[in-house]
## 1
Amino acid sequence: MSVSIAGRADWLADKHLQRLLAALAEGGEEARVAGGAVRNTLMGQPVADVDIATTCLPQEVIRRAEAEGFKPVPTGIEHGTITVVAGGKPYEITTLRADVETDGRRAKVSFGRDWKLDAERRDFTINALYVDADGSVVDLVGGIADIEARRLRFIGDAEARIREDYLRILRFFRFFAWYGEGRPDAEGLKACARLKDGLAQLSAERVWSELKKLLSAPDPSRALLWMRQAGVLTAALPESEKWGIDAIHGLTKAEKDLGWAADPMLRLEAIVPPDAARMKTLAERLRFSTAESDRLRHWALSTAVEPKTTEGELAKRLYRGDRQGFVDRLRLSLAGARVRAVEDNNALLEAGGFSRLLAFALKWEKPVFPLKGADLTALGATPGPKLGEILKNLETEWIEAGFAPDRGALLERAAKALET
């Protein structure tokens, strides 16, 4: 079956890309766009990155790119990959390869000229498609049929593909979340379940990167369900085992209905317990960034908010705590109440309360306490523990009064406190 994407791939018409493909195809060599750009175009989804496969050896890629006035960067030359910046856009160009040796994490490769062998070393059929410069799709592994069926399938033997790189277990569920429909491929699912212990060989950074991409899918709930049934979710994220993933579907629906952006961190919080000690361990194990660790910790430390809470009371808690932590709590509570509201009128009222409080928290700005230690020393206070205690007590009074007392009133209170 002949398939062309020429009329629906604006990115392929880019003049710099066309020049690059032409340069790499001179003298009997070949070059094609490979992988995600072809897949996403066929599925009607946006294309972010354009990767190229070529028969040219890496040094020849560099030579030809420079001859065209483009900038080559040897980002992975030992694996046959050169990044070429053309027209301000980076293109990752990789020489056709075959695996010589794998250990479940990385592979030793040999360069070749066989497109079928190159396709067969890839993970899934939908990721092993190529397209020529004129838009003609080259399918050597049945990827087009799988795209039409929204079916995610390993190339060849699923277990063999996984043993080449155990990260493919997580990629199986990630790509299913983004592109699959119905049930996952049975052979792929069984292979993932059998080989899940291999995840322990992977670096924490690779595991968290895949989990985050999975949690960024429009609705990862089905993928998470199958991950749990296969034992993969517990292997990768043991904190989720006794907490559950039931909240995910309601959260994604709330995101869609209320216009919230898909938020992988919020989705993670939906499936793990709000236990600060366990979240600290999770963040350390998966090597979270400082911002990710802080957000998870603040969420775990933020106490639950009741739907009847007043804005004034919430403002006090926001001042003493972390706003993002409370916003996350409120979003999860609102999503849960919306699910229950289908059959429970009380939950409908709760949803209204959470929605009100969330709107308040999102627009709330932390007020600045009007006094400093220097203000008390100007009144004659001696620096030391007593000054700090008075300042702390005054701030507490100011908070409990709804942040209403102004600087003058607080100075009067400070003067009286210093007299005692």
## 2
Amino acid sequence: MMPEELYDIIVVGAGPAGSTAAAYAAQVGASVLLIEKKKDLGVPLQCGGFLPHLDTLQELVPNAQLPYMLEEIPAECIHTTSSVQRFIAPNGYSKEFEVDADAIDRRRFDKYLAKEAGRCGVDMMVGTNILEVNGTSVNVDGVFGAHTIGAKVLIGADGPNSIVGRAKGLVRDPDPMGTGTAFEYEISGVDIDREAVEMYFGKDYVPGGYAWIISQGGDTANIGVGIREVLFRNGLSARDYLERFMYEHPIASPKLAGASIVSVVSGLVPVGGAPKVTATKDALVAGDAAGHIIATNGGGISTAMVGGKIAGQTAAEFLDGKCALQDYDERWRREMGLEIKTAVYVRKLMDNLMRSDSMMSTAIRMIAPEQMKALQCGQLPDAVRKGLIKMNFGIK
């Protein structure tokens, strides 16, 4: 593909945020180039792919206008559907609540979104690396050769270590507890509860985080740990913790006996909230680059797409002289900023609790299922807040 010398908008990163931003901008006539460093979209996978159904997503961010791509997920993008989310405390006590959700095949889902962007008229360069950002021009190299390409607006949807974000100063303050590591296996040959997504807690297996088992249908599953590196014990890695969970956890390991590992998945998860500023006079960041993630569960597909939609719309309106590009900051915060900020607060409450297995077990026993669901959605019922603060002496 030979790119044009100048586009209205260059979007960096063809994940859920980037493809959504590109599609919404192109729909209203902007010329858009979408650049992705991967040669095959969605590979390697960097997400467990848990996506609640539309009504639950709307509960998650009630003030947001969800992108149309979430209204009906193509069947070929769905591994399987679950109806229950279950928490397993360090002492083995479990509690669950109902939630209808899909285990998404991210390889197919990311390609579905990119193809949708292509249908809207977006040019795309896969297998292409950003070497340098100069103003609103990018120097690139990759399978289509070396180019310098200009734009009027840049949108960085290129993950927690965004090149665009760094170039434009749109970054979070340093916080070791604000970035997690997700390390996952796709496995086959297991007999697990296909109707439930299970989340396990305990400092011996996932200090300051949780492990999960998500069915992908049949005898396959995604298992993983979400953990902060600052809490690793000396000499241990995220892989070590996942291996310990898989082979030694008293409840999980029997379910996973005989499993074959068919794929290894890893990536960074920004759980520290959004940067103070996410827009300049010529650039925006969206998705993981902007902290568009619910810190209590690490889920970010839907919030990334909401951020991408707002980024694409704002960039296009800016080019038409209808708004300032910096309006993006206020727009996305109005639609989902409260939920993202509240989720970070809840995560900090839970961080202290998770330092003690007995306190974490007590908290899971104390919290009602409907309250547990609210916490997962980044909401904090007042009764739960008071209870957690009482247990968590140092948090106000």
## 3
Amino acid sequence: MRRGIVATAVAASLALAASACGGSGGDSTDGPVTITWWDTSNATNEAPTYKALVKDFEKANPDIKVKYVNVPFDQAQNKFDTAAGASGAPDVLRAEVGWTPAFAQKGYLAPLDDTEALEEKDAFHPNLIKQAEYDGKTYGVPFVTDTLALVYNKALFEKAGISEAPKTWDDLKADAATIKSKTGVDGYWGSTAAYYAQPFLYGEGTDTVDAENKKITITSPEAKKGLTTWQGLFDGPGLHKADTTADAYAHIQDAFVNGKVAAIIQGPWEITNFYTGSAFKDKNNLGIATVPAGSTGEAGAPTGGHNLSIYAGSDEAHQEASATFVKFMTSAETQAQIALKNSTLPTRDDAYTDEVKTDPGIAGFQTVLPAAQPRPELPEYSSLWGPMDQELPKIASGAEPLDKGLATLDTAFADLLPDFAK
């Protein structure tokens, strides 16, 4: 690996002793280097694949040992934040893409430009690299990716005489009514969660904020128009009413996989679960299309996923070993193996082999990735979804007018982003 990671670490206070992180202590001078990897994947469905790959890596690199630790995803961000601040973080972290700029801003992550970890940078989709960047440097290597798509039941669409997926939200509304009248099944069931509302903003050429110009845009005419469209998809023929219960996600998913609703907006993390339902015993009945477009003609959904990042507080030997490990885990061959085992989406096109694309879910979601929109380089961006998750269910259920909800969000965003103009 090329030198330079430690030299560019942000804070001198983070240039810690070898005992600073879980895998950085106790190595003999002539023995293998031991690095610690915090994996934040599902411990039951995904982690076994990663554990097996760790063994493969160690066989190929006998001078490096990997201490594998599975950390629950919902705890990992706070755990890493605490550990890095107290000089005890792991050498490698599987970080949700929204965490990367936030941890980079704090100086907890090592820049990976011109290191072994990013030797194949051009193989990754530029949008995925973009959201691993902060202040002109790259702090993560794209590991798995995702986005949202319109997933639909081909058989129900065909029964209703509909031959293709809707291209616009108006088309979706019309199709839902037709499906209801022809099959008796609701055509569409929308989510009240903030993440699932993003495509409606993108469809009007806007977002919750304009990060480049440091402006809050949630009350802009464009945002209001997009969320008016979103609100309108909870009431009408073939449109399921808003579910604001704590189990809404499970209710929507269960209805779709068992043929009780024809279409929903969902991500590739549910690919394997789609096939467990009665509606998709034939996997080819699963239709996947880009989310419908708004009035601007634009269609897109947020880019999600995870990067592999390296702790800035590890010593140089451990950072170099970590970079070797990250390169292995993000190689085309490894990514293809992960996709085949876990049904997750690779972050590089050369990992979409013919064998990988035999899964119609993976092949389908690959086609919608070009429309995925990267998150802006704003450490607080993902935090904006918290207030939205509080307000959007009220709006969707009719308990609160849209204008009032947006005004509440405007105030909440201003508290999170005091330097942004309204």
